[in-house]
Design the sequence.
């Protein structure tokens, strides 16, 4: 599988390292901010992997979908444009795989969290909140992973209806609000926790990332999977589609 990598930051370099060690794939080219990105820029590749920033992705996604190649996107922070991107993918007859986090461990965390939120829903004595910790260089706030975790809770627990990222001084949290607290600290790589609390006990579900290897290898696995589906079933896919397919096989 020949890969065009869009973005040459830390994640891009980690993906290139995973690909180099795979023995079965190769990086055809790396495109960065100084390159002109149009549909022809991806010629000769089998799949595109994009790890850039919001502004770059929104400027480039039409060229990527127009290339006719499947596109794996790890760039976060563009949820407000999700519907427009989905429509572009559909109208182009293209394929796109998007996840805020490609770590298989994180996605198992999401599924565990979904089940935990469902289990406590009938019991009003249990409340739930989210915290996330990252290094001070982290751009988005809260992280895309934390936003996805919050969505899982809202989907599974009808007692929580809205997400609160910050509380104004003096305002109390409402019972139907889910707090997502963000901490930026030193070189913390990434810690996401769901805290379930009652007067009698506390349950914590936590995922701690140790390095970028899990994120990068998950993105490459997603690219393999999407490349295999693209011709027969183009469309917009997520990690849920990938995992459901794996678990059902």
Sequence:
């Amino acid at each position: 599988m020949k890969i065009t990598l869009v973005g040459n930051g830390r994640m891009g370099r980690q993906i290139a390292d995973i690909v180099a060690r795979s023995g079965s794939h190769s990086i055809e080219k790396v495109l960065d901010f100084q390159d002109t990105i149009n549909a022809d820029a991806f010629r000769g590749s089998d799949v595109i992997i994009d790890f850039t920033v919001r502004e770059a992705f929104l400027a480039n996604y039409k060229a990527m979908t127009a290339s006719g190649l499947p596109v794996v996107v790890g760039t976060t922070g563009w949820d407000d444009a999700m519907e427009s991107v989905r429509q572009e993918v559909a109208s182009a007859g293209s394929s796109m795989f998007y996840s805020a986090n490609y770590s298989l461990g994180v996605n198992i965390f999401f599924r565990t969290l979904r089940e935990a939120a469902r289990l406590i829903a009938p019991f009003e004595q249990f409340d739930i909140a989210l915290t996330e910790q990252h290094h001070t260089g982290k751009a988005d706030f809260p992280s895309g992973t934390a936003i996805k975790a919050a969505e899982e809770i809202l989907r599974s627990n009808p007692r929580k209806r809205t997400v609160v990222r910050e509380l104004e001084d003096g305002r109390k949290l409402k019972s139907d609000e889910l707090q997502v607290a963000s901490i930026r600290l030193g070189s913390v790589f990434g810690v996401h926790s769901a805290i379930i609390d009652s007067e009698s006990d506390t349950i914590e579900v936590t995922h701690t990332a140790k390095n970028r290897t899990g994120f990068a290898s998950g993105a490459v696995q997603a690219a393999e999977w999407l490349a295999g589906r693209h011709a027969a079933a183009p469309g917009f896919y997520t990690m849920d589609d990938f995992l459901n397919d794996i678990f059902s096989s």
Q: What stands out?
A: The chain is about 40% helix and 25% strand. Residues 104-120 form the longest helix (17 residues).
